[in-house]
Amino acid sequence: MALSGRLKPALPLLPLLPALVFPPLLIQMLGDLHGGGLTLLSQFVVAAFQPSLDPTVLSAQVTGLQITLITALLSWSLSCVVGVLLGLISSRTIWVLVSGTAGASRWIRRLLSPLRSLHELIWGLLLLQIFGLSSWVAVMAIALPYAALMARVVADQIDSRDIPAMKALRSNGAGTIPTLITALLPSFAESLSHHMAHRLECALRSALLLGVFGLGGLGTDLALSMQSLQFNELWSGLWLLAMAMGSLEVLTHRLGVKLIGALILLAPGVGAGWGRLLAMDLSMPQLMLPLTDLSGSGALNAAIEALPTAPWLTLIGSTIWLTALAAAVAIGGPPLGLLLWPGRYGVVMQRVSWGLMRLFPPPLTALLLLLLAKPSLGLAAIALGLHHLGVMGRVLQDELDSRSNATRTAMQCSGASQRLCWLYGDLAGASRNYLAYAAYRMDVILRDTAVVALVGGAGLGWQLRESLTSFHWALVIWLVLAYALLTMAGEMVSERLQNHWACEAGGL
Amino acid sequence: MPTRERRAVVLTGLILSLGITASSTSAGQTLKVGAIPDQNPEKLNRLYGSLAQELSAKLNVPVRYVPVSNYAAAVSAFRTGSLDLVWFGGLTGVQARLQTPGARVLAQRDIDARFTSVFIANGSSGLRPINSQDQLKQLKGKRFTFGSESSTSGRLMPQYFMKQASVTPADFAGGRPGFSGSHDATIAMVQSGAYQAGALNEQVWSSNVKAGKVDPNKVRVIWRTPTYPDYHWVARPGLDQRFGSGFTERIRTTLIGLKPDTARRRDVLELFGAKRFIPAKASDYAAIEKVGRQLGKIR
Predict the structure, then answer these.
(1) pLDDT higher at A310 or A204
(2) Of the candidates A4, A268, B212, B279, which lies 20 to 30 Å from B89 by C-alpha distance?
(3) Better-predicted residue by pLDDT, B36 or A455
(4) Residue B120 backbone phi and psi in degrees, to 5
C-alpha cells in the first residue's frame, strides 16, 4: 500500500495501462499467421457489399429478427419490473426505513448474486433441458440474470445517495410508502431509466446470442449461415441486425423517463401479441426434467464420481487468463486508438469499427481470426475482447461527449499538442467513470468466456459445452457451480475496484 | 394525454398481455419436424419447407419445420416434445432415444447404412496419405479439428478410429482438438492452415469438391474410414394417440415411398443427397451406442 501510494500513475494513464497487452498479443498473432484463409476472408469482405437477396433467406431472416426483438423486449420488461422490486427489497436504505435494521438486505443480495453469476447462454441451455424449446426459455434465460443485475443497480443507486428530502419527510412524520414515492423514486428515476434503456440494447445482443446456440430467432439463421460459410446470407442477416440495433440506439437515446416506463409496461402485451402473429410458441412451459435415475444417494454418488474427472486447476486457470487478456484488449483498446488517431476523421473511423465489433457475435470474430492465424488462447481472447472493445468504445465516447472541453481548450491555447490535449484534457476527465464501468464489464467478459469455446480448449466454457453435449449432468452441475463461484469472486473484486475508482459513478 | 387516459391505456395493455399469454396455450395438433443443423440455412429452409408440404399432403395434418442450430438443443427439444419427428445423426439419434423411451427409428437414406468420414490434411502439414489405420499415429502433435461436438461423422467415429490406432485427443498440438462447428468450416479451417488436419462427413466433402469450393493444391483426403451407420429419422412416442392410430407407421410409409416422380419430391430427395429412404430399426445403431459409451458421449 505504501508503495502504491508513492508510485501512483497519472489518472489518464490508468485506462491506457491495459493496452500493454497489445504488443505481446500482436507478436503472438504475427507468429501464428498462416495467410491460407485470405481468399475466404476476402470473400467475407466482398459479401458485405453483396448480401443475399434470395426471398427464402430474407423472409426467414426478417421473421427471425422479429422473434429476436420480441424475446429481447419481453425479457427486458420482465427484468426491469422484477429487478426494480428486488432492488427495493435488497436496499439497505429501504430496510432501515421500514424496519429500522438493514440486516435482511445483505441476505437478499447474497441470494440474488448466484442468479446473475451465470451467463444467459448457460441459463438458456439449462432451462432448455427443463422446459424444452419454448420461447419463454429464451425470455427467462435473459430475464433471470438481468433482473438480478438490475436489482443490484437499483439497490446501489438508492444506497449510494444521501437524499435530504427523505430525512425531511421522515422527521416530519410522513409514512413509509409516501416517503418512498415522493422522496426516493424521483431522485433516481432519471439515471435508472438511462440504465434501463441501455439494458434494452444488451437484451437484444443476448437474445441474438441465445439464437446462435439454438434457441431460435435471427441468431439461429446467422449461426447456420456462419457454419456453412454462406457469407452473402450471413451479411444480409448482419445488415438487418445493424439496422435494428441502430434504430434501437437512436430510439433509446430519445426516450424520456415516462416513455421508458410506458414501454416497460406495454412490452408484455405488445410482445405477446406480436409473437402470436408469428406463431411463436408462448404457451406456458411444462416441467420436463431430464430423464435420469438420480434419486438421492444415486445423484450424490454420480456427483462425487464426476468431480475428479475434470482438470479443475487448468480449466479455472485458463478461464481467468482468458478473461484477463480479453478485458485488457477491451479496456485498453478505445483510449489507445483515440490517442494514436485523435483527429475528427480518426474518431469517425473508430466509431464505425466499434459498431462493427459490437455487431459481430464473438464466435464469428473467432472464426474470421482463425482464417488468419493458428488457434490459441490469445486468439480466443482477441475474439472476445474485440466484441467488448466495441462496447467500451461507445462508453468512452459517450463519456467524452457528455463532458465540457474547457480543459482541452485551455491546453490548446497554451500550445500543447493535439495528443497531449486529448490525453490530459479529455481522457483525464473521463477516466474515473470509464474505469468504473470497465470493472463492471470484466464481470460480463468472465461470463462471456463461455461463448468462445470453438477456438479449442478455452477453459470452463469448453468443458461445459462438451459435458452438455454428452448430457453428463453430474459434471455439468459442478461446472455451473465453478462458474458461479468464479463470477461471484470476480464481482467482489470488481466492486472494490469500482468503489475505488468512482464512488459517484452509480453502478452503471 | 390526460393522466386518466394514460392510465387506461397502460391498464388495457396489461390486461391484453395477460389475456394473450393465458389464451395462447398451443393446440399441439401440428406435427413439428426438425433436423440437426449440419447444412446451410437456405438449403435447410428449402428442403424442410418442401418436405413439410409433402408430409402434410400425404398425412393430412399441418406440418411445421422448426429450425434448431445446436445438436444438443435438437436432442433436448425432441425429449421435451418441442419436436415430433427429427432427422438425427447416428449419435444424436441414440442420445435422443435413450432420453425418450418409446421413440422409434423410422428410416434412413440408402447411403446411411454404409456411411464414411474422410480425414483431410493441409498440403503444408507434411501429412502423407494413410494406407493402414495404424498410420493415423502421424496425426500426433498436429493441430487437428473436428466438426461439431456431437457429430457422428465429424467427431465420434473419427475419434473412435483414431483411438483404435491409439491416438487420443490429448495427443494433438495444444493438448486438445478444435471444434470448427460444422463440416464446411472444417474444410475451410484445414484449407486455410489454421488446423493441419481434420475429419468430416464424406458426403459434404464430395459435394464441396463438386461445387469447386475445395482447392486441391491446398487440401486433400488422406484417409477414408471404414463404414458405419449414420443419419436417420426418429419419431416421438405417442404420435398415434395424438394423430390417430397407425400414424407413426404412416409417416414411415410416406418417407419410404418417396420417389422422384414430382418436382417437389425430386427436390426433397436431391437436397437429402439420396435416391430413396429405406427402413431402419434401432438395432442398426447398436454399434454407434457402444462407441458413444466408450468415448463418454453417452452416459
Answers:
(1) A204
(2) B212
(3) B36
(4) -120, 155
Closest by CA position to A116, among listed A149, A92, A81: A149
Which DSSP state fits A393? H
The CA angle A112-A145-A441, to the nearest 5 degrees, is 105
pLDDT in the model for residue B223: 94
| Residue A135 grid coordinates | 420461447
* Least CB–CB distance from B20: residue in A37, A215, A273: A273
Radius of gyration of chain A (CA): 24
Q: Rg (Cα) of chain B, in Å, rounded?
A: 23
Cα gap A313→A310, rounded to integer Å? 9
User: Whose grid coordinates read 472464426?
Assistant: A367
Amino acid (1-letter code) at residue B13: G
CB B149 within 8 A of CB B70: no
> What DSSP state is assigned to residue A213?
I
Q: Could B37 and A224 be called an inter-chain contact, meaning their C-beta atoms sit closer than 8 Å? A: yes
What letter does residue A373 receive in the DSSP assignment?
Answer: B
Closest CA to B277 of B261, B253, B248: B253
Choose among B80, B74, B78, B82: nearest CA to B26. Answer: B82
Task: Give the mean pLDDT of chain A.
Answer: 80
Provide the pLDDT confidence category of residue A175 given band limits of 50, 70 and 90: confident
Q: Which of A142, A102, A138 is nearest to A120 (CA)?
A: A142
Nearest-angstrom CA–CA distance, B186 and A205? 27
Phi-psi region of B250 (alpha: psi -120 to 50; beta: other; left: phi over 0): alpha
**Residue numbers of B between 243 and 282 with CB closer than 8 Å to A:** none
Are A128 and B77 an interchain contact pair (Cβ–Cβ within 8 Å)? yes
How distant, in Å, are the alpha carbons of A86, A90, A97, A113, A415 from that of A101? 18, 12, 8, 21, 57
CB B91 within 8 A of CB B294: no
Tell me which range, A92-101, A354-363, B37-46, is most confidently predicted by mean pLDDT.
A354-363
Distance CA(B17)–CA(A77), nearest Å, equals 12
In chain B, the residue whose alpha carbon lies closest to the alpha carbon of A380 is B178
Measured distance CA(B54)–CA(A172) in Å, rounded: 76
Query: B40 vs A475, B35, B43, CA distance in Å?
Result: 32, 12, 5
Quick one: which H or E segment has residue A419? helix A418-420
- Whole-prediction pTM value? 0.83
Q: Does B76 touch chain A (CB under 8 A)?
A: yes
Q: Do B80 and A376 touch (CB under 8 A)?
A: no
User: Using one digit for the tens of pLDDT, what is the confidence trace for B226-284?
Assistant: 999 999 999 999 899 989 889 999 999 999 998 888 888 888 888 888 888 999 999 99
Residue pair A452/A375 in contact (Cβ under 8 Å)? The answer is no
Taking each helix axis as running N to C, give the angle between helix A55-89 and helix A185-210, from 0 to 180 degrees, rounded to the nearest 10: 140
CB pairs under 8 A between A and B: 212
Instruction: Say if strands B104-109 and B232-235 run parallel, antiparallel, or are unpaired.
Output: antiparallel
Residues 30 through 59 of chain B touching chain A, CB cutoff 8 Å: 37-46, 49
- The DSSP line for A235-266 is HHHHHHHHHHHHHHHHHHHH--HHHHHHHHHH
* A121 touches A213 (CB < 8 A): yes
SS3 content of chain B, % helix, strand, coil (to 5): 50, 15, 35
B181 DSSP 8-state letter: S
| CB atoms B69 and A214 under 8 Å | yes
Q: What is the pLDDT of residue A126?
A: 81
